[in-house]
Amino acid sequence: MPTFGKVATCTSPAVWMVEGYSGTGGTASLDRTVYACQRHQVTAEAQWLRGLIPESRPASGLHWCGTFTDYDPEASG
Ligand SMILES: [Zn+2]
User: Fold this and answer.
1) Each residue's pLDDT tens digit in the chain (77 positions)?
2) Whole-number Å distance between alpha carbons of 24 and 9
3) Is residue 77, in this structure, part of any structural domain at all?
4) What pLDDT, on the 0 to 100 scale, is given for residue 76?
5) How many whole angstroms from 52 Cα to the centroid of ligand 1?
6) In a domain, 76, yes or no
7) What is the number of domains present in the chain?
8) What domain range includes position 36?
9) Residue 24 CA to ligand 1 centre (angstroms)
10) How far is the CA of 28 from the centre of ligand 1 (A)?
11) How many CB atoms lie within 10 A of CB 16?
12) Residue 35 CA to ligand 1 centre (angstroms)
């Protein structure tokens, strides 16, 4: 089961959904997504992904900066 949380006290709406991958190519696994406002996109990629490989996409819908989802590594392989 994914776990949800918030890593920042920022109250801005997110404009970026930053995905964090471990591994590369065909074995890459999406381990975490975190939403970030424009000001925190760099922070999200550098810190909030805990070293995962970042890939930012425009956020769709209303989300708040700093909210993240961790995916179960066993469930995703
Ligand atoms: Zn923010």
Assistant:
1) 899 999 999 999 999 999 999 988 888 899 999 999 999 999 999 999 999 999 999 999 999 999 999 996 655 44
2) 32
3) no
4) 46
5) 19
6) no
7) 1
8) 3-70
9) 28
10) 27
11) 21
12) 8
